[in-house]
Design brief:
By secondary structure, this protein is an alpha+beta fold. It is 61% helix and 15% strand. It has helices spanning 46-57, 82-99, 106-111, 131-196, 204-218, 221-238, 245-266, 269-289, and strands at residues 7-14, 18-27, 32-37, 60-70, 76-80, 117-121.
């Protein structure tokens, strides 16, 4: 099954003190073009990370971002501003006394007055994460990335196979029309033969040799057989388990070569029209192959 060269994958985890997030993005590229953004604490693992990405993603313009931040739930504590709480509480008592109001919840009200409860950070430093924390998370991001590629590849497979099937249909039309083309050529040759056979300079042997050469030049039987084989080979290759984008590109070139040869040898308006339609389908295939791993 085909895999898309474009993809996205991410993974996140919160430790006791840190929040780690990894993001992978990829666009089309003829080779592996990897750009890294990661904490300095992982610099000694750069080669291992590059090998891990290259082995799993094969090729593409890949951006890998590893970010580490402080866990919002760690490294903080709440502190009561006692002096401010006392001041608020006394003011509320005085107000309640002056107004003759009941005052059962004065403490709760004072505790929730502005700036009474204050949050403080116990450690402003970000923990240096370890490879034991990042490695499995990176693999998770890669797995998610490859799942994305596979899903995109399924849609591309359906689309490309539909173009191949269309070329098959057009080739069947060429095959159906070919006998009429050959008969038309035969009648033209017979007509010309009658015109020139009465000439004094007519050489029967030479004429037969030239006719054999002419008929062979116009014969497209071998090209049709090779084109059928190329289409079959292309379809087989699409469903191979390994990345086949480059291989499919080479097969598409061979398909194009046979289509062009049929067009140049056919010498027939109907077949020329069918050849143009086959070329259109092949161009669609080549366009999509640019996005295949």
């Amino acid at each position: 099954m085909l895999l898309s060269m474009t993809g996205f994958g991410s993974a996140k985890v919160d430790t006791e003190t840190s929040a780690i997030s990894i993001e992978l993005k990829s666009l089309n590229s003829k080779s592996m073009d990897l750009s890294l953004r990661m904490p300095r604490s992982l610099s000694d693992k750069e080669l291992e990370i590059r090998n891990m990405i290259t082995r799993s993603l094969v090729r593409g313009k890949v951006n890998l971002t590893i970010e580490v931040g402080r866990n919002k739930t760690s490294g903080t504590r709440s502190r009561i501003n006692v002096e401010l709480l006392n001041a608020y509480y006394k003011d509320l008592q005085d107000a309640a006394f002056n107004l003759g109001a009941n005052s059962p919840d004065l403490f709760r009200l004072a505790l929730h007055m502005p700036e009474v409860l204050q949050t403080e950070s116990t450690d402003d430093r970000t923990e240096d994460v370890t490879w034991e924390q990042v490695g499995p998370l990176l693999q998770e991001a890669i797995d998610n990335f490859n799942t994305f590629r596979a899903d995109e590849g399924k849609a591309l497979t359906t689309e490309i196979i539909s173009y191949i099937d269309r070329i098959r249909i057009l080739l069947a039309e060429v095959d159906k029309h070919d006998p009429a083309r050959v008969e038309h050529i035969r009648q033209r040759i017979q007509g010309h033969l009658q015109e020139i056979s009465s000439s004094e300079t007519f050489n029967q042997n030479r004429f037969e040799q030239e006719m054999i050469y002419f008929i062979e030049k116009l014969d497209i039987a071998e090209e049709k057989v090779r084109l059928v084989n190329h289409l079959h080979y292309f379809t087989e290759t699409v469903y191979l388990p390994e990345p086949t984008g480059k291989k499919l590109g080479f097969i598409a070139q061979e398909i194009g070569r046979e289509i062009n040869t049929i067009g140049s040898k056919a010498n027939d308006a109907t077949i020329q029209r069918l050849v143009v339609e086959m070329k259109e389908e092949l161009e669609k295939i080549k366009e999509q192959l640019n996005n295949i791993l």
